[in-house]
Amino acid sequence: MLNNVVHLSAKRSDDPQQDITQARLVETLMTMNPDYIVVGESKGEETMQAVNAANTGHAVATTLHTQSAELTYLRLMSLCKMRYPNMDDGFLLRQVQQAFPIVAYLDCTEDHKRRVMEITEAVRQPDGSVKYMTLYEYVLQKNIRHGSEIEVQGYFRKVYAPSEALRKLVLRKGMTEAWIEKIFGKEF
């Protein structure tokens, strides 16, 4: 197996024209025909470049701090506004939802471990509105104290099936029917 991973890092310079920003790195990456682009943490102007990359067919993953799966879309939009403050909010929100149709929301549970608490899909409705559909959620059953340690017990519950648009997207990107059935179930 050949490792084709390229790690790029942002770097500040005494001359602002020579700064290598995350936004500049993502923009440059799009010309390299990567299989995947991972932005370690979106916290500024690079977010708009990540949205652009995703909306031009690149597979993009990023992390950011937010308070819920649904609020992730508004947070992404506000980060994009750092680069384009005058862009129309409605248009920008649609771009963000299209770029990242699925959000995995993690939170810190009482045992101080980060857990995936919810996986949500932004589903465009026929009237153009978007409905946020929780695909999976972590159900916290109980916290058990063992001296100074806490054990969190819970399980993942499937809430809704992914949309037909998502099914078509993952098939187009190379996921097989067998994998789709394994992950999402036969009804998908």
Automatic annotation (TrEMBL):
Which Pfam families does the entry mention? Answer: T2SSE
- Domain Bacterial type II secretion system protein E: residue ranges: 15-84
The record's annotation in Gene3D superfamilies points to: P-loop containing nucleotide triphosphate hydrolases
> What InterPro entries does the record point to?
P-loop_NTPase (IPR027417), T2SS/T4SS_dom (IPR001482), T4SS_GSP_E_ATPase (IPR050921)
Gene Ontology molecular function = ATP hydrolysis activity
**What SUPFAM superfamilies does UniProt report for this protein, alphabetically?**
P-loop containing nucleoside triphosphate hydrolases
Entry similarity comment:
Belongs to the GSP E family.
List the protein's name: Bacterial type II secretion system protein E domain-containing protein
Organism of provenance: bioreactor metagenome
